[in-house]
């Protein structure tokens, strides 16, 4: 049994530390700083180990002489050692603390960059709030390990080894007693390690869930307040926070118990050594100074071992955080550039072909979103897509943007399969104006130039004017430098829509996707933006998801979708004459006394 325990223990610790090894390359970038920290740490440890020697000399010699100069010399030596200790400790603290901050800053930047590259399917299956917890709370936990905890561990390891050596040189008899107590101290740490790790990970998971719930509700705070759901949301978050507290309390209780047992065993062994040493002093076998020296080294060894046990708990908790971060970093996006991506023809003309395309979302909910879909959009053509909710209109846009890959069939742009293109190159060829535009908490100019950070102020202003947004922008106190609130909540729906259109204009892409981009505008602004869009659409391949049939009237061609299939195609006049689904939708909308009733009829399929 004794032969099997050490390998098992070693294997367990290798499993614990394995996640940290995945993060180690972030630390190894700064070998020079690590080396300086180790030098400062070694100097501080040696100065600490020298103090008991100075104390012994002072007790055995300084107090037994009538020469004040000798006493001054011993105290002067102690002050010198303390000065070295202070300088080395300050250097160590600065180096390791900044090292931890530097590593975590790099890790956060890498993790966020990686998250920006993951595909839409990943975000369909993961909550943004939990990902933010990984980006903030978990990386903060790692900062302590790569900074302070690593330094404390090495310092206490140095002190423990050095103190044990000096104890053996001071008194072999008393050292034997101390070494015999070490297994009693280490055994509880080994036995409790797994329970502490499990409780720590559970606490971190509960905290991530609470953070995710808070982020989701705060992002929709107006909806929450409009529905009078504040109390319910606050109650649910309080319950989630309570669960997180209970989990953290359990983890802390386990660590506290381990700490109490360790401290009792450590200092009980020190008391036992002091008792034996006192009898040796009385018998004249050792001097008072030597006993004091040994006790100081024993205290150093005991406190160092106790600190190592606490660091071990921190390391195991951080290993859990590193494991979760490592899991995210190891995820490969399903939408990636091929090893040898094909370049789009230059200039890109914008011919889009759907060839027997079928697609189901990764979650599998709702079955096939589109099935056996085939159509061609010629360069410069303006095609409208209509159909009831769930017919697959938005899915077509997401497939063109290659947020997802088709399940079967192929989509090509200018004859090139989208899967053979670099996604970045593909998306540079496409401009999108969504129905529910996203506005960021930045300036108006930065929002218009989002994705085109190198755009000049003249280009931004020109895009805003073409989108009929310049009038309301220039009326603001800071104009284009006005800071918008999170998600642009200080703007009206029409203003947000016009900013999105300006962003699409600035992109100057050969393919334009419009998800009923005028739906949030009043009649006057709709007419202005419509003129701007007519200008932008000229010479570009344009697909329009239409809810208002007034938008459809000017389309070159109309595709009518139902249950993921094109059931009709043609011009407005030909489709009305055919008397099919489109004709029924058109009759409901144009004959409705309220235009909004007709729009809902079109969206819901009559």
Q: Can you lay out the helices and strands and say which pair or pack?
A:
Layout: H1 5-28, H2 31-62, H3 68-117, H4 120-125, H5 128-170, H6 172-219, H7 221-226, H8 230-282, H9 288-329, E1 352-360, E2 368-377, E3 382-386, H10 393-400, E4 408-413, E5 416-417, H11 423-428, E6 430-433, H12 444-448, H13 457-466, H14 470-474, H15 493-507, E7 511-515, H16 523-537, E8 541-545, H17 549-552, E9 557-562, E10 565-570, H18 572-578, H19 581-591, H20 595-604
Parallel strand pairs: 3-8, 3-9, 6-7, 7-8
Antiparallel strand pairs: 1-2, 1-4, 4-5, 9-10
Helix pairs in contact: 1-9, 2-3, 2-5, 2-9, 3-5, 5-6, 5-9, 6-8, 6-9, 8-9, 13-15, 15-16, 18-19, 19-20
Strand order within the widest sheet? 6-7-8-3-9-10
Q: Helix coverage percent of residues?
A: 55-70%
Give the N-terminus to C-terminus distance in angstroms. 77 Å
The helix tally amounts to 20
Q: Count the strands?
A: 10
Radius of gyration: 35 Å
| Structural class assignment | alpha/beta
- CATH architecture annotation of the domain at 19-329: Up-down Bundle
Q: Class of the domain at 19-329, according to the CATH hierarchy?
A: Mainly Alpha
What's the CATH topology label of the domain at 19-329?
A: ABC transporter transmembrane region fold
Proportion of residues in β-strands: 5-15%
- The arrangement of helices and strands along the chain is HHHHHHHHHEEEHEEHEHHHHEHEHEEHHH
Main pleated sheet: 6 strands, mixed
Unreliable residue runs: 1-9, 592-606
CATH H-level superfamily of the domain at 19-329: ABC transporter type 1, transmembrane domain
- In round numbers, the mean pLDDT is 79
> Rough shape?
elongated
């Amino acid at each position: 049994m004794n032969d099997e325990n050490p390998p098992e223990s070693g294997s367990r610790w290798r499993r614990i530390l394995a996640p940290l090894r995945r993060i180690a390359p972030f630390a190894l970038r700064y070998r020079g700083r690590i080396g300086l920290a180790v030098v400062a740490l070694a100097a501080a440890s040696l100065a600490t180990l020298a103090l008991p020697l100075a104390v012994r000399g002072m007790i055995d010699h300084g107090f037994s002489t009538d020469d004040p100069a000798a006493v001054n010399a011993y105290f002067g030596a102690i002050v010198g050692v303390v000065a070295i200790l202070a300088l080395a400790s300050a250097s160590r603290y600065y180096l390791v603390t900044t090292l931890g901050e530097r590593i975590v800053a790099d890790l956060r930047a890498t993790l966020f960059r990686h998250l920006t590259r993951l595909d839409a399917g990943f975000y369909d299956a993961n909550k943004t709030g939990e990902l933010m917890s990984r980006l903030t709370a978990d990386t903060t936990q790692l900062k302590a390990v790569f900074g302070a905890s690593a330094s404390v561990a090495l310092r206490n390891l140095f002190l423990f080894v050095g103190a044990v050596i000096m104890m053996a040189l001071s008194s072999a008899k008393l050292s034997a007693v101390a070494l015999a107590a070490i297994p009693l101290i280490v055994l509880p740490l080994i036995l409790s390690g797994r329970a502490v790790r499990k409780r720590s990970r559970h606490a971190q998971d509960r905290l991530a869930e609470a953070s995710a719930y808070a982020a989701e509700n705060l992002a929709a705070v107006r909806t929450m307040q409009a529905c009078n759901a504040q109390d319910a949301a606050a109650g649910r978050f309080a319950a989630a926070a309570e669960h997180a507290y209970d989990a953290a309390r359990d983890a802390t209780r386990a660590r506290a118990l381990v700490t109490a047992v360790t401290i009792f065993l450590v200092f009980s062994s020190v008391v036992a050594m002091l008792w034996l040493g006192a009898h040796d002093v009385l018998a004249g076998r050792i001097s008072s100074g030597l006993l004091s020296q040994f006790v100081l080294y024993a205290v150093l060894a005991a406190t160092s071992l106790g600190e190592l046990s606490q660091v071990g708990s921190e390391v195991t908790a951080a290993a859990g955080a590193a494991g979760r971060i490592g899991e995210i970093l190891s995820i490969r996006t399903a939408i990636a550039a091929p090893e040898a991506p094909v370049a789009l023809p230059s200039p890109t003309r914008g011919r889009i072909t759907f060839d027997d395309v079928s697609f189901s979302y990764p979650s599998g909910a709702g079955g096939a979103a589109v099935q056996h879909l085939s159509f061609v959009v010629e360069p410069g053509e303006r095609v409208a897509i209509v159909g009831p909710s769930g017919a697959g209109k938005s899915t077509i846009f997401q497939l063109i943007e290659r947020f997802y890959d088709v399940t079967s069939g192929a989509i090509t742009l200018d004859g090139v399969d989208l899967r053979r293109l670099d996604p970045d190159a593909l998306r540079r060829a496409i401009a999108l104006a969504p129905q529910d535009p996203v506005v960021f908490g930045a300036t108006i100019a930065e929002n218009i130039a989002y994705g085109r950070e190198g755009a000049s102020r003249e280009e931004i202003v020109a895009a805003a004017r073409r989108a009929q947004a310049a009038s309301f922008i220039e009326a603001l106190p800071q104009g284009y430098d006005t800071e918008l609130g999170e998600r642009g909540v200080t703007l009206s729906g029409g203003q947000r829509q016009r900013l999105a259109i300006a962003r699409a204009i600035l992109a100057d892409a050969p393919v334009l996707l419009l998800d009923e981009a005028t739906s949030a505008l009043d009649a006057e602004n709709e007419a202005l933006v419509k003129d701007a869009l007519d200008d932008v659409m000229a010479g570009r391949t344009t697909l329009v998801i239409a809810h208002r049939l007034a938008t459809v009237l000017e389309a070159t061609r109309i595709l009518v979708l139902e249950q993921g299939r094109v059931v009709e195609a043609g011009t407005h006049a030909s489709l009305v004459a055919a008397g099919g689904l489109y004709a029924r939708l058109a009759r409901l909308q144009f004959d409705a006394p309220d235009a909004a009733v007709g729009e809902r009829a079109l969206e819901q399929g009559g």
